[in-house]
Amino acid sequence: MISFYTYIKKLVPSSLKHTIKQCLGLVPPQSPLQKIPPELLDVYDKTEPFIYNFAQESVAAPTIDDLSITTSSLTKQEFFETSFFQYWYPQLNYVDTEYKPNDVFYHRKIWEHIYIIQAFYERNYLANNKRGLGFAVGIEPLPALFAKLGCQIVATDLNRDNANKLGWIQSEQHSNNDLSALNRNNICPPDQFNKHVSFRNVDMNAIPDDLTDFDFCWSSCAFEHLGSIEQGLAFVINSMKTLKPGGIAIHTTEYNLSSDTKTIDNNPNFVIFRKQDILKLVQELTTCGYSVLPLDLSTGNGIIDAFVDLPPYFRKKMHLKLWLNGYVVTSIGLIIRKSE
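^ that's the sequence the OP posted. Answer follows.
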């Protein structure tokens, strides 16, 4: 039986929920609509939601022998139309009662999850007894899927008090230290999940020294929330210390498509990384002896690649790019290997 609170939440439109959260200070304020370029408003007004529908017939598992993901890249429409996407998407059990189970929205968060999954999988890291470390996992589905595939996972997130101060618990983006919340979509059998997944409070700005010897680590759209661009870049470099020789880290974050000079920095809620910041990070990682998959900063040429969602994000279920505090933003994924 669902609670009265949950029932009321289902009746409130997503756009109104977002506005309420803004009024309560739970999310950063958005730029006024009048500051958005007219051409973006015009495209937005004429665009209907994009839904990608694929048949429910089973899709063969991706081949491990061939690499599909060979670059550190930006979100693009073409990714959603690959066979490996069709294989992984149903396994994540995204639940939305408004739509059919085989309806897929072109959303950058879904891209981040499956980009991380496929890049680990085809390099044979998602296998029995491989050890993985997840940073700021919130309530994302990755720990459950990795456990289902036999990995031993340490899932981490900010402690409850700090998460509450930053609004992550109220906005339902934190597990509230409830391990079962990481398997809320029933991706992994409960007994196996409890055997393979443990939880620990970790501040990404101060990774404990005893978190070491992992085969892989990841974060999904997290290190932009560490307070500044410099702190975000430092986290990525420091995360490499948690890996075994030959281990792989995959991190996704916000990427500024509007400017390589102006951006949001030194903000407790979020920052937006520019091309110059990513290039600086790659150089520093290389200097430290790590290798980064080549950057592909092309933005795609599909119809959905050209669409920019606008506040209060009525189309938030299907955007690859959005207008955020005066900038067009998308996601970028970085794949980094530690030397053998």
